Amino acid sequence: MAPPDARLEEPHTTDAFVPDLYRVEAVRRELSDTVTLELAPISGTRPAYAPGQFNMLYAFGVGEIAISISGNHESGNRFIHTVRDVGAVSGAICRSAPGDVLGLRGPFGVGWPVAAAEGSDVMFVAGGLGLAPLRPAILEVLENRARYDRVAILFGTRNPADMLFRHQLESWRQRLDIEVEVTVDHADPDWHGHVGVVPGLIPHVMFDPAETVAFVCGPEVMMRFTATALTAAGVASERIHLSMERNMKCAIGICGHCQFGPDFVCKDGPVMRYDRIAEILALREI
């Protein structure tokens, strides 16, 4: 997977279309089809980023895809990416081993408004792999817990075996200053928690609708129903933020692959306010 050795000491490029070279430092298996990679720049330091932004990861000889950042500043001079094997490029990235080299462009896009949410109740709602793009924002809020009022994390997955970041979820549930609720679509005999869809967890947590900021990430249908449930509970649509996913190619709003109504997900998102996109989000063919 690594390119010729002669390129390994090239400096970071200033061309947004040319990837920098990153070495795979560690690979952690999360699920049968999902891994978390730690990537370190071969030269220089990794750029700063905001929770919710994404990078374009390039598997040499295969292709490039957009992947959200799933770690935080504690990662040091590394990017953390959690990737599910769903195609040729993601599969090649998931098969990476320590020492392999990937291309990386970024970070790109609009992140979660974590600082703007200070002083408010904060609700994180994730479905499946949607917990990965939310994790940097969760970690930042928890590191600065005193700046926020009530904090709730709601997570849904297909079944207990598909639970992402299980150990971290368990550690968060041990805290006394946040609420964590988990649900599954299909339970097994050992499951004793909630069964059902993620929006069904909203009545189980304490929050002031007038003072709540919600961060939502997951399958699009899940986000539509969650946003509807939150507005029905009294949360203003401009205080609900969704992370959209589209086929991003250039990552800087030129190619048009990720156009979403008048916006481009790569530069106007991926995090978007619900009041801005509610009408378009209701059109399933968009």
UniProtKB/TrEMBL annotation:
The keyword Metal-binding applies. Residues 17-114 form the FAD-binding FR-type domain. [2Fe-2S] cluster binds at residues 250, 255, 258, 266. GO terms for biological process: pyrimidine nucleotide biosynthetic process. Its cofactor is [2Fe-2S] cluster. Binds 1 [2Fe-2S] cluster per subunit. GO terms for molecular function: 2 iron, 2 sulfur cluster binding; flavin adenine dinucleotide binding; metal ion binding; oxidoreductase activity. The keyword Iron applies. Keywords: 2Fe-2S, Iron, Iron-sulfur, Metal-binding. SUPFAM superfamilies: Ferredoxin reductase-like, C-terminal NADP-linked domain (SSF52343), Riboflavin synthase domain-like (SSF63380). PANTHER family: ANAEROBIC SULFITE REDUCTASE SUBUNIT B, DIHYDROOROTATE DEHYDROGENASE B (NAD(+)), ELECTRON TRANSFER SUBUNIT. This is FAD/NAD(P)-binding protein. It comes from Devosia nanyangense.
